[in-house]
Each structure stands twice: as structure tokens, then as C-alpha cells.
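stuck on this fold:
=====
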Amino acid sequence: MKKTLGLTGIALAAALALPAAAQTVLKFSHTDQQAGARQAAAVVFAKKVEELTAGRYKVQIYCCSQLGNDPKNIEQLALGGIDFTVSSTGSYAPHVPSLNLTMLPFIVEGYKQGWRFYDESKWLQEQFDKAPAKGFRFLATWEAGFRNMTTKTALNSPADAKGMKLRTFPNEMMRWSLEAMGFTIQIMPLPEVFLAIQQGAVQGQENPIDTIYSNKFYEVAPNITLTNHVYSPIPLAISEKTWQKLSPADQKAVTEAARIAGKFSREMIAGNDDNQLKEMASRGAKVNAKPDMAAFRQSVKPAYDKAREKYGADVDKVLAEAEAIRKTTK
């Protein structure tokens, strides 16, 4: 009798497990911390995917570089090892080199301009359209914000940057710009940055405010300088192998989920910058809201020259579109 009950229990458990077994789990890997806006948007995306596919798909989120740093995530995306990642446009440039030009310094001056550029730029859409041939495709542009500096010592102009070792991510346009400002550049994965600053291997780093806040970089590099030197949103991408396995209806559902999460991401980041700066200041950070921007803008001219040497007419296409948007956006 006990044996019969045992078998019945196993059969019941198996029956209850059938719906879960039928659900396809998709991996979403990113490098943000648990408290960051990227993670918050990923949660919104995951819920919407499950809802819009009537539970056929579940998105499992791996935050905090659990499965790899940004370059590794994008490599895995192209190979089909993961299904989704979200990263700076410049991080995708090793696969679509022209995307380096999205990292040109000072091309937009506010969120509304940035959103219009990413939503309306014909040049940018042409670059995004190259991605499926590289193993992934872009679904929607999420937000990370404008990149700013956090350094151990005060930073007000390129004169203060001279000889300072600064961490950044692997992107040639960013390297050209920061070196033109006077920094000595050190490339390293995001999870290593806090300790590297703490131990003196580098004197600071540059990232959007939300990334600075969620990674607590202000604790080891308390001088926050609002240079806004690069607008740095984070397109969400899906593995092309995954995309091709989806039905047209599920492709539409995943794209819609990405768009909804993107709107959430933009609103969250744009609405949080001031609050996060105030919070960091309350914890001892020194916020320099008015550095010598004329000097910083002048310093990066050699980076534009290098970009023209390598990318030719594309540079002026980007600048012309960005200028038109600046003129028509308040």
C-alpha cells in the first residue's frame, strides 16, 4: 500500500511539473548590480515576455557579470550561448565597427535629444541592421545615461586629467577621446574597478550616474565631475539563433516587451540622476556640476580627426543628424 501511494505521489508530482517543463527558459545576462536600473528594466522585460507569450517563455536574469563581462556576453549572444544582453552601443562595436561613432563626444546635450537620435537616426538604423549577420539583433534602446567622471582627486579641466590613470571599457572612440583629454587609459572589466581604484591601480573611472551609484564608485573616488562627455544608452539585443526559433507572434511579443521595458528604463534613469547625485553627496561625494566644459570640448578635437581618418564620411553623417536634432529639440 505504501508502495502504491509512493508511485501515485511521483505521478502527481510529474503531472504538476508538466507546465513548467513545457516552458522555454531564455537566459538574459548583464553586468549591472542588483540595485541598478538595468536590472530593474530587465525584471520588467522578463515579466512582459512571460505575459505576452502566455507563459510559453520565461526569462531568467543573470545580473552582476555572473555569466561574463560585456564583451563576453556579446560574444556568447552571437554564438547562441545566451539569449539576451544589454550593453553600451560601443560595446557592440567589435562586431559592428561603425557603432564606435555613437561614442563620439558631446554630440547630444540632453535626454530628449539622445532619445530622438536613437529613435530617428537613419544612419544609426542602417548600422543596427548589420547586426543579424553578426549573430544578434537589436530589439529596443534602453537607457543608461550620460557618462561622467569619478576620480580620487578633484577634476575641473583637461589640465587636471594630465597623467591621471582612468579606467574605461574597451572602445576605441572612448579611448581616443579620453586620451585627448589627457588621461592615461586602463581597460578592465567593470567588476574589478572598485578594488582597482581602492588599491591605487587607477585614480578613477567614467560611467553614467546610475552605474556610479549602483557600483558605489563614489566611495573610493569621491570627486564626481559632470562632464556628460558621451551619451551612453544601452541597446537590448537578442541572439539571432534565438530569434529564428521564435514564431512571428512570439517575435512580436518579445519586441513589444523590449519596447515597454525601454520606456521604463528611460523614465527611470532620466528621473533618478539628480536624486542619486544628492544621495552620493550626502555620503561624502563632492559633485562638480560646472567643470570647464569649453576646455573639455576643445580637448577632444583630435578624437574627431582620428574618427574621420578611419570612418570617413560616416562621421559627418552622424554629426549632421545630431546637429539637426539639437536645433529642433528643446
Observations:
- The CA atoms of residues 46 and 290 lie 39 Å apart.
